[in-house]
Amino acid sequence: MVVPLPAATRLWYYLGGVTAGAAVAGVLGFKLRHLVGGGMSWLVWGLPAGMAIGALAGWFHDLRRPGFVLGPDGIRLAGRGGKGATQWGHDRATIGGIAVEAYDNGERALYVWSPSGQVIRKESGHVPDAQELRRGCERAGLPWVRPDFGHWSPPTP
């Protein structure tokens, strides 16, 4: 099962691309206005074209977004929505718990704990929705939440 990034994160790809495209088109149009007649008529076609190119760039970036792949064999972060190359992964035997929790200043991060309670992975760059991750862990048979620190138990097959 693939757990994608939240829709709000994906929306920022597009908004960032449109904003960057408009800014680049505005700066280039202003600097090169003498090539298109010297006036501000470039605004009519330049800004919408820059915004469209920015939205296209956001779409290409969205295609490359990573996804968490959960299965009976473990968890991994893979590019291209979970179908691409693996960036990192942990086998089922090394996982004691998986959860999304807040740390230091309230930012959320994905934690993967060993069965002994040590943090083996903290992912703050790509954080999935906690409810989607919990459902995915339950379907894949992976332990959800922090392990019991004083109590070691073997992984379920």
Structure description:
The chain crosses the membrane at residues 12-30, 42-60. The protein has 157 residues and is α+β, with helices and mostly antiparallel strands. The chain has two domains: 2-63, no CATH class; 67-140, no CATH class. The chain has three helices and seven strands; from the N terminus they run βααββββββα. A four-stranded antiparallel beta sheet has the order 1-2-3-4. Strands 5-6-7 form a three-stranded antiparallel beta sheet, with helices on one face. α1 (7-31) runs antiparallel to α2 (42-63). The model has no long low-confidence stretch (mean pLDDT 83).
Features:
single chain; 157 residues; alpha+beta; 3 helices; 7 strands; 37% helix; transmembrane helix; transmembrane; membrane
Please specify the SSE layout and strand pairing.
Layout (H helix, E strand, L loop, with lengths): L1 E2 L3 H25 L10 H22 L3 E5 L2 E5 L7 E6 L5 E6 L5 E6 L5 E5 L6 H11 L17
Antiparallel strand pairs: 1-2, 2-3, 3-4, 5-6, 6-7
Helix pairs in contact: 1-2
